[in-house]
Amino acid sequence: MLGYLGAGIPVLQLGSALFHSMCAIRLAAEFRCVKTLALEMVYPQVRPVADFLRCFPCLEKLYVTSHMVVPQSMNILKYDNADDPIECLNHHLKTVVLKGYEGRKHELQLAKFLVRNARLLQVMKFLCENDCSLTWLTSQKRRLHLDNRASSGAQFVFKRVASCYGLCIL
After folding, report:
1. Which residues contact 3 (CB under 8 A, 6 or more apart)?
2. What is the mean pLDDT of residues 3-17?
3. How, if at all, do strands 36-41 and 23-26 pair?
4. What confidence score (pLDDT) does residue 168 get?
5. Within its chain, how far is the Cα of 105 from the centroid?
6. What pLDDT sits at residue 75?
7. pLDDT for res 8
8. pLDDT, tens digit, for every residue of 41-58?
9. 3-state SS of the chain?
């Protein structure tokens, strides 16, 4: 069993794969038996998440927690492997939960990447700390380009986590 992978782990070696501060230094290992992965990241971005997805080709559920405010000036890591398919996105990933989602640029890019590439996605949940107002939800739907999703049957659920109300389904 592999535990929760979080920002508090400075160096992580999984077989021959090596991660430093949640970014891949060397990718080589594949752990086909892992079905659920939870990542805690200061600023979840496409490249490090995609690198983890490559290590777990049979992943069915992905949980990403963003837990800190990120400066607007933070550099967004470019994802350069668009032509290199990620097996779990094409064949296995069905559930994604983004906890602490506020629609910041890096979170939006990660969500758009998953929306565009997860072919079997059934549900993507956005657990938000804001009020999930109708204006904000409309903006998020537009910014996520949900019409261009890889899985036509996917549901996108926005829920305010600070209270028991605010469940919004787009």
Report:
1. none
2. 67
3. unpaired
4. 43
5. 13
6. 47
7. 63
8. 777 778 788 888 888 888
9. CCCCECCCCCEEEECCEEEECCEEEECCCCCCCCCEEEEEECCCCHHHHHHHHHHCCCCCEEEEEECCCCCCCCCCCCCCCCCCCCHHHHHCCCEEEEEEECCCHHHHHHHHHHHHHCCCCCEEEEEECCCCCHHHHHHHHHHHCHHHCCCCCCEEEEEECCCCCCCEEC
